[in-house]
Every structure is written in C-alpha cells, then in structure tokens.
Write a structure and sequence with these properties.
This is N(4)-(Beta-N-acetylglucosaminyl)-L-asparaginase. It comes from Amygdalobacter indicium. It contains 9 helices and 13 strands. By secondary structure, the chain is α+β, with helices and mostly antiparallel strands. Helix 1 packs antiparallel against helix 2. The protein is globular and about 50 Å long.
C-alpha cells in the first residue's frame, strides 16, 4: 500500500508524478522530492520556489523542511536565496550527522559547496506583483508600513511507500512583503511537519506565526499514537489551537493541515473554508478536494472541473503594472 497527500491544488502535478514513482516501488523520500520539486519549479505558483513572492526588499527567501519517519532524521533550510530547489537541499541536510538546519548565507554556502543549482528565483511576474503592491499600499495608507500578503500557501506533503516508510516535506517562499529573515512554521520540525513511520505524518500551511504556537504537526501525530483516527487527530489539533488563539487574541490566523496514518488513510482539517488538498493512493487516482467547515468539522468534496479551470486561469492570467 502506498499513499501521498499534499496541501493546496498546487500539489496536483507533483503528486501525479509521485504516484507513478510510488506505484513502481520508489521510496517515499524520492517520491516526495520529485513531487515538491515539481511545485517549486512552476513559476505561476507564487508562494513556492521559482516565481515565489519576495520580501519587502524584493528578495525571494525560501524555506523548506524534510523528515524521514523511519529514523526521525530531519533537514531544513530557511531564508535561502538563489537556489532552485530548497527541498533537495533540506533532504541532503537530513543525511548529515549534525548541522541539519541551516539558514541564510550558511545554507547558501552549503548548497553551493554541495553542487546544488544556482538560479535567480525572482521572476518578472513576481516583480509586477511587488510593484503593484507598493502602489496599492501607498494609495490606501500613504504610509511605508507594508502589510503581509494574505496568501501564504506552503506546499506540504506526506508520503507512505510500499515498504511502509513515511516521509514528510514542506517548501515555501513565506509571506509576501515579509521582513528580511522572517521564518514561519514551514521549516520547523513539529510545527510545519512531522513524521514517524510507526504512526503517521502531518504537515501544515497557513499563518506560521500562529501555527508554530501549537506545534500542530507533532500534535497530530501524537494524537494518532494515542489511538485517534487521522481525521479526528487533525480536527482536534486545529480546533484546539484555533480556540486557544481566539480566546487569547480574539482572532486566529489561517491554519490548515493534512496527514497520513501508517495505513495510508488521510486526514484534513482547517479553520477556513475553501482550503484545497490532493490525495492519491494505490486505490485512488490523484484527486483534488475542496473543504468547508460545518459545526467544527472539516468536510471535503472532489473539486469540480469549473473550480479546477478557474484555479489555473487566475494564476496564469496576464499581469500589468498598475
């Protein structure tokens, strides 16, 4: 039995590729790297990899994390610039005995020394988004204080292979117009991702500053270990953190998660409606699902073709400077 699940519609092409690899007996780690790289390389997904939206200095800073559920090894990078596939660098770091999480210039030096591909990650399309945002802020507030872009979508994937190994990976460019050096939950083990092949794996997307307060990915796996189903664990973790944050602050940022258990069953939960995810398994072709909230539960249905068409249309639509 193999299975793979990923956050957002943008995971579809990568998961479709990974499904073929898993069916042929490829390892979870290899399949995940293939899947995440596919997302990183697509320039129209503006929250991950090439084409990712820049920080307030118009620099693309990328974060990624990887975990092997068999031996609990972890690799991660944060704030890395001008390298094509941060997920591959993170996975390589997981093989090191120590120095597994590198940031900024240290991560870049390691990537360069290890032979990873250098690439200018800032695209012309991302520049247009940047300049338009500047003009929009100036028009609305007449001030230099830039607010983060509301779309901060991390691609996160959890994968089970035929050998019953589970791995998990994340990749993101983080908040649009973030302060240089800002890091969210995505590369943080336990927050953005966690995997244990004897139990399952989970990964999160949303507002990192809130997600990391609940160590939500670890919490989901812990709940599964205590006997909860993967779906119940996801909903309990998201609802608990959402309620806690609202009690303290009166509000909570977006929190969405997907997870797999050791049998390949998936779970999903979100504190927003409209979160999308992709699942594939030995028995299920790669399918995009869209969620809605109802009485504390996250319900999901396969995305309609109209929704799928609109998704690609809006992301590839021509842009012009305001």
């Amino acid at each position: 039995m193999w299975a793979i699940v990923g956050t957002w519609r943008m995971a579809l092409e990568g998961i479709t590729k990974a499904a073929g690899e898993l069916s042929a007996g490829r390892s979870a780690g290899d399949a995940l790297e293939i899947a995440v790289k596919e997302t990183e390389d697509y320039p129209y997904f503006k929250s991950v990899g090439y084409g990712g939206l820049p920080n307030e200095n118009m620099e693309v800073e990328l974060d990624a994390g990887y975990m092997d559920g068999d031996d609990l090894t972890v690799g991660a990078v944060a704030g890395i610039k001008d390298f094509a596939n941060p997920i591959s660098i993170a996975r390589r770091l997981s093989l090191e005995k120590c120095n597994n999480f590198l940031v900024g210039t240290g991560a870049e030096a390691y990537a360069s020394k290890s032979g990873f591909e250098r690439k200018t990650m800032l695209t012309q399309r991302a520049k247009i988004h940047y300049y338009n945002r500047l003009k929009q802020e100036q028009k609305e507030s007449k001030a230099a204080n830039l607010k983060p872009y509301i779309g901060h979508d991390t691609v996160g994937m959890a994968c089970l292979d035929q050998a019953q190994k589970i791995c998990v990976a994340t990749s993101t460019s983080g908040l649009f117009m973030k302060r240089p050096g800002r890091v969210g939950d995505s590369p943080l083990v336990g927050s953005g991702f966690y995997a244990d092949s004897t139990i399952g794996a989970a990964t999160a997307t949303g507002l990192g500053e809130d997600i990391m307060k609940g160590l939500i990915s670890y919490e989901i796996v812990r709940c599964m270990e205590e006997g909860m189903s993967v779906q119940a664990a996801c909903e309990m973790a998201v609802n608990k953190l959402d309620l806690r944050l609202k009690k303290i602050n009166g509000t909570a940022g977006d929190i969405s998660v997907v997870a797999l258990d050791k049998k390949g069953n998936f779970g999903v939960a979100s504190n927003i409606s409209g979160f999308s995810f992709v699942y594939a398994s030995e028995k299920t072709a790669p399918t995009v699902y869209v969620t809605e909230l109802k009485e504390g539960h996250t319900l999901y249905t396969p995305a309609k073709q109209e929704w799928l068409d609109e998704y690609i249309k809006t992301r590839t639509a021509p842009l012009k400077l305001l």
